[in-house]
Amino acid sequence: LRFDENVRVVVFKSEVKGVFCAGADLKERAQMDDAEVGHFVKRLRNLMDEIAALPVPTIAAIDGYALGGGLELALACDLRVAASSAKMGLIETTRGLLPGAGGTQRLPRCIGIGLAKELIFTGRQIDGQQAFSMGLVNHTVPQNDKGDAAYQRALTLAKEILPQAPFAVKMGKLAINRGMEVDIASGMAIEGMCYAQNIPTRDRQEGMAAFKEKRPPQFIGK
Q1: What residue stretch is flagged as signal peptide (predicted)?
Q2: 153: number of CA atoms within 13 Å, CB side?
Q3: Cα-atom radius of gyration of the chain, to the nearest Å?
Q4: What class has domain 166-213?
Q5: Helix (H) and strand (E) counts for the chain?
Q6: What would the pLDDT profile of 168-189 be if each residue is shown by its tens digit?
Q7: 40 in helix, strand or coil?
Q8: What is 10-161's CATH number, 3.40.1440.10, 3.90.226.10, 3.90.580.10, 1.10.20.10?
Q9: What's the Cα-to-Cα distance from 102 to each of 90, 96, 106, rounded to whole Å?
Q10: Could you point out which of 38, 50, 178, 194 has its C-alpha 20 to 30 Å from the C-alpha of 186?
Q11: Tens digits of per-residue pLDDT, 82-93?
C-alpha cells in the first residue's frame, strides 16, 4: 500500500460482525515463554508503527469491540469512526499487563494525559458515544441492521478526502505527524519543508488554474 500511488485512503474494517479487533489471543500467549512474548509484542509494535507511517490517510471503522491491541490498531490510524454501541478499551491491566503496541504513547497524544491514565489504570471499557466525547473517535453513529454503520460512515469520510490533491494530503499528514513531536518553531520548519515539496507539483498548478477558471480541479497526484 505504501508504494501504490493509486491508493488515496486506507480504511481498516473487520470481517467479523460485532468485533473490530479483540486484541491478542491470551490462550496463545499463555503458551509462550517470556522471550517469545517479548518478541511477539515487539513485532506487534512494529506493525502498528508501519500502519502509522503509511503516507496516505487511514481510517479505523470500529463497528464492535476494539480491545487491547485492537484499540492500539485503531489508535495507529489517523481517523477513527465508531458505532455508538462499539466497546473500546486498553484492558491490559485487568490481565496483569500494560499496553505494549503503542497504547501508552498514542492514547495520551489523542485524548490527553489525564484521561489516558484513567483508562489505562482502570482497564475500563467505553462505548462509541463516550469515546466521541473524549475525542478518541472523530465520529460516532447509531449501529444499523447490517452491523457496518461505522464502516459506511468511514467510507463517506474517505470520499470527502478522495477529491483533494493526493500529494498535498500526504504532505499535510507528514507535517502534522512530525510537527506534533517537536516544539512549535521546529514544527514550523517541518511545515515549510513539506510546503516546499508541494510547490512544484502539477496538482498545485491545477488547483490555481481551476480556481481562476471557476471549475472543479482535476488532481492526478503529480
Answers
A1: none
A2: 22
A3: 19
A4: mainly alpha
A5: 10, 8
A6: 999 999 999 999 999 999 999 9
A7: helix
A8: 3.90.226.10
A9: 11, 17, 6
A10: 50
A11: 999 999 999 999
